[in-house]
Amino acid sequence: MVLRHEPTARQMRLAVELRRLRDAAGLSATEAAALLGTGRVQISHIESALAGVSEQRLRRLAAHYVCTDEALIGALVAMATDRTRGWWEEYRGLLPTPFLDLAELEHHATFLREAQFLYIPGPLQTEDYARAVFSYRVPELPEEELELRVRHRMQRKVILESPAPTTYEAVIHEAALRIMVGDRATSRSQLTRLIEISEADHITVRVIPFDLEGFAGAASAMTYAGGPVPKLDTVVRDGPHGAAFIDSEGQLGAFRTLLRKVERASLDPQRSRDFIHRLAKEL
Predict the structure, then answer these.
(1) Per-block average pLDDT, block size 10, for the chain (283 residues)?
(2) Residue 13 burial class via C-beta count within 10 angstroms: exposed 0-12, middle 13-18, buried 19 and up
(3) Residue 1: exposure state from Cβ atoms within 10 A (0-12, 13-18, ≥19)
(4) Alpha carbons within 13 A on the beta-carbon side of 198
(5) DSSP 8-state secondary structure symbol assigned to residue 6
(6) What distance in Å separates the CA atoms of residue 129 and residue 125, rounded to the nearest whole number?
(7) What separation in angstroms does the CA of 135 have from each of 138, 149, 150, 181?
(8) Bridge partners, residue 113, by sequence
(9) In whole angstroms, what is the distance from residue 172 CA to residue 111 CA?
(10) Which residues of 110-140 are buried (b: 16+ CB within 10 A; e: fewer)?
(11) Rounded to an integer, what distance in angstroms lies between the CA atom of residue 139 and that of residue 137?
């Protein structure tokens, strides 16, 4: 068997969920291997995403683990048997792996909700805005890689523009709307883009204004990606060394609560559009 050298975040998530099911059943890797008639090393490879698992073996494991959540089992089977090679694969070896993992996560998400306080969310950015963001990096990126990152970010918009688009909700703080990461024309174009795209039925944009009293949630920036079942939801947060994918049940519950608080603090969609329109006229 050829082992994977660099499992994707989706493959890692499947591995983690299988390990969680085994732990919940109180079985060791050696005991699980015996139930399948294989060795402990094989279970280790599956649970570290170095090796895949067939539908038959996955269902046998789920049965031995006394998992009765049919929706979860079906979702795990779909993950295990998925052979999708999406558009992001053309960037493998050219961009850092988290760029690809994020695009794959967005592709499979049943819905997306974002809260951003300093930047416009990636899928809503214009090309000039994205280029200005990547151009500020220290040390500076080579021109070729900068353009690769911009092109990758623009291609992420497919989730919003395809014939069957993903339901998308974004809460954006006024700070992100006012910070001019590029020149004045870039900012004006970005705000205009937000107004236009927020008219789509599947896209909701909300704004948190500066003068909102009692708001202390500026550290709650996140992307919340819905899975086929709630247990397979994922939160993505930017960290000093790249994106962090969070999927533990306790943390997901905390981030759901944080996201609800942020959404409750925001203006409704129509008032948010009017707010953005006023800012655009000021530029």
Answers:
(1) 85 97 96 92 95 95 95 97 92 94 97 97 98 94 96 98 97 98 97 97 98 92 97 90 88 96 96 97 92
(2) buried
(3) exposed
(4) 26
(5) S
(6) 6
(7) 9, 10, 10, 10
(8) 169, 224
(9) 17
(10) eebbbbbbebbbbbbbbebbbbbbbeeeeee
(11) 6
How far is the C-alpha of 210 from the C-alpha of 178, rounded, in Å? 10
Between CA 124 and CA 273 the distance in angstroms is 14
Neighbours of 148 (CB within 10 A): 18
pLDDT at site 3: 86
Say if residues 18 and 58 touch (Cβ distance below 8 Å). Answer: yes
What was the pLDDT predicted at 161? 95
Distances (CA, A) of 93 to 2, 13, 90, 163: 20, 21, 8, 30
Phi-psi bin for 196: left (phi > 0), alpha (psi -120 to 50), beta?
alpha
Which residues does 206 contact at the CB level (< 8 Å), separation at least 6?
A: 169, 170, 171, 172, 263, 266, 267, 268, 269, 272
Q: Which residues are paired to 245 by β-bridges?
A: 236
| Residues 127, 67: Cα–Cα separation, whole Å | 46
pTM of the model: 0.94
Contacts of 149 (CB under 8 A, 6+ apart): 95, 99, 130, 134, 141
Give the pair of three-digit tokens for residue 169: 């909700």
